[in-house]
Amino acid sequence: MISNFEPLDELFNVLNKVLGEKVHFYVIGGAVMLYHGLKVATKDIDIVVDSKKEFLETEKALKKTEFTTKLPSTEYKKFDLNQIFIKEGFRIDLFQRTVCSGFILSEGMKKRAQKVRDLEHLTVSLCSTTDIFLFKTFTEREGDIADCISLTRSAIDWDMMLDEIDKQMKISGNKVWITYIGERMDLLLERGVRIPIIGKIDRLREEYFAEAEKRLTTKN
Fold this sequence. Notes:
This protein has a single domain, classed as Beta Polymerase, domain 2. 48% of the residues lie in helices and 18% in strands. It has 9 helices and 9 strands. α5 packs antiparallel against α6 and α8 packs across α9.
């Protein structure tokens, strides 16, 4: 488990020295929450890179620094997780642009990310807490509901989140996502979390189920 950001800084400095080309890490998940004081410890470092070239360069650098690979477990079946790297107290979940059943690192997410390190070969940006909240509504990992509750202590931009949901569904054509998001938000409501956009989420869910029923009726 990692309990502060210092070991991550050290890791980024080590990787910067062995990377052969410029790579940009977009960090999501618990590591960002740790940085903002929203989580006391994390076991995973979730990193997204935007291209195959950056993914391969990162993979090569991690192996040079004695990280070993591990196959994703069934817990990560919806994650589109490309590779897991393990070394002592570090576990890195590495994604190439796509996270969670086709959910992509969008241009909006990249613009909202906070650049925290700009080294010779490695730039590190932390995705916004709003976008991390949204990522976590797609997952079924133990602890993600608690993380979402913690994230609401930060400045969540609910309208921007709703706009990102709409853009992601249009990009992928996968409207079923709204049911995943809605289910997680229902759980958060049960735990007393205020969700200002829940009425709009409910309407989007109703539209999805109405369209699905219409397609089923037409098919039969």
